[in-house]
Amino acid sequence: MNRIEKTNYINSLKKDLDSNNAMMVYHYEGLNVNQLDELRDKMREAGALLKVTKNRITKLALKETTHSDAEKLFSGPTAIALSKDPITLAKILVKFQKNNENLKIVGGIMDKKLLAPADVVEIAKLPTLEEARSKIIGILQAPHQKLISILLAPGQKIASLAHAKSLKKD
User: Fold this and answer.
1) Would you put residue 110 in left (φ > 0), alpha (ψ -120 to 50) or beta?
2) Are the beta carbons of 84 and 47 closer than 8 angstroms?
3) If we measure between CA atoms, which residue out of 22, 42, 25 comes closest to residue 117?
4) Domain residues of the chain, as ranges?
């Protein structure tokens, strides 16, 4: 890359960093192209962005962003995954790491907070936004269903008694 291309690439990376509040850093050494493509596809499906860049260039891009504290995570063959949804991002990386031991999660940053590898694993255990919404809706609907069954119970009893009485008359 020449100087102008590097500057454009760094500016593009800065925009990507600023537009996503979560970044996970991992080592990819030992992964083959097919495995990296599989990870990239999973990230793309979740709306995440995966970038393999040189550490020096990434550190330059990090300097004036909210992710600047993550600069110390960049040593060795590192790559970054960016997303607005840190939980889904962590879930994808942790699940992929279980099946591919060559992927090593180095850490990350979420809402300006630096994360250790153990933190990323803990975040992966949290429910996603959709799962949390489903649980909340279930909790909110349960009292309504109980209330309706309580209100309908006297009517059902009266109907059952009337039906039983009509059968006795026969």
Assistant:
1) beta
2) yes
3) 25
4) 3-126, 127-170
